[in-house]
Structures are given as C-alpha cells and as structure tokens.
Write a structure and sequence with these properties.
Elements: E1 2-9, E2 12-18, E3 23-28, E4 42-44, H1 48-61, H2 78-88, E5 96-97, H3 98-108, H4 116-124, E6 137-138, H5 151-160
Parallel strand pairs: 1-4, 5-6
Antiparallel strand pairs: 1-2, 2-3
Helix pairs in contact: 2-4, 3-4
C-alpha cells in the first residue's frame, strides 16, 4: 500500500509517498516523471515516515542541514540504486558532476569506464528529490543542467544551501 500526503514548500507543492518501509517518492507538482513510480492503489494518510519527512523538509527549507534522513525506500534497478547511494553522499552545500559520479561508479563496479550519460539517466529518474539530492549534480562546466523539477528549482535549492558554484 502506498500512503501519500502533500507538503507546501517555498518552491511549490510537493507530493510525498511512502510504503511501510520508507519514503518512496517526493516530487514537485508537475515535474518531469511526476509520481511515475506511484502505484495506482494509494491512501491519503499520515504515517510516521511521512511525518518524519515533513519534519526533515521543515528543517531543510528553514535553511539548515537536517541531522537525520527519513527512512528511504526508492524503487529502481541495481544501477540506479548505486547512483542514488552516491548522491546521498554529496554533502549539503556541495556539488558533484555527472562525470565525477561516473568515475566513482566505475571504481565501485571495478570497470575501466562508466558513461556519464547513463549516470545522468539514473540521476534524472530519482523519485525522491531533495532528500536524495539530485539537485547537487551539475554539468562538467559547472552548468545547472538536467533537473526534473526545473532548473529554477535546482538553482533555488542550491542557493538555499548556500552552494558556491
């Protein structure tokens, strides 16, 4: 069963989704791939995971780095899961390029090369935006590229974190 709720952020409304294990989705209304991983059967209900996610978002949007992460349960291939694990390790206020993530993936998978485009596909299909910080991934030249929520929101999130590009 999927449980859903909403959150009114300074950047627009967010849809939150969770199952009994953890958060499964966090999308800006109308973003690319909006609620694509959400099952048809869902219930509008407050759960401990959704409450903890709201608490995390309240701290985050107040301009502070939350000291905890709500339980996460993203659905995706092993490759996507591995990329998302790297995203979770990008520190608050810092960025990584798609190429840097590709090199880290190659190292972890013990291969000589990993495609930055493949990494970009995994980053773009992250269903738990903000908490799995895909907004911290930038182009090789420092450009703000490829954010499903929109480049304006990516810029605002990085500004909130006082990220220097």
């Amino acid at each position: 069963m999927a449980y859903i709720g909403t959150y009114h952020s300074p950047l627009g409304n967010l849809l939150l989704a969770a199952d009994d294990t953890g958060l499964t989705g966090l999308w800006f209304e109308g973003q690319k791939y909006f609620a694509r991983t959400l099952p048809e059967e869902q219930l509008l209900k407050e759960t401990p995971v959704l409450a903890e996610t709201r608490h995390w978002l309240n701290i985050y949007f107040s301009g502070k780095e939350p000291a905890f992460t709500p339980p996460l349960h993203p659905a995706g291939s092993a490759f996507r899961q591995a990329v998302w694990q790297i995203l979770l390790q990008i520190p608050y206020g810092k960025t990584m390029t798609y190429g840097e993530i590709a090199r880290e993936m190659a190292k972890r998978q013990q291969v000589s090369h990993m495609s930055a485009q493949a990494v970009g596909g995994a980053v773009g299909h992250n269903a738990i935006s903000i908490i799995i910080p895909c907004h911290r991934v930038i182009g090789a030249n420092g450009s703000l590229t490829g954010y499903a929520g929109g480049i304006d929101k990516k810029a605002a999130l990085l500004e909130l974190e006082r990220t220097v590009l």
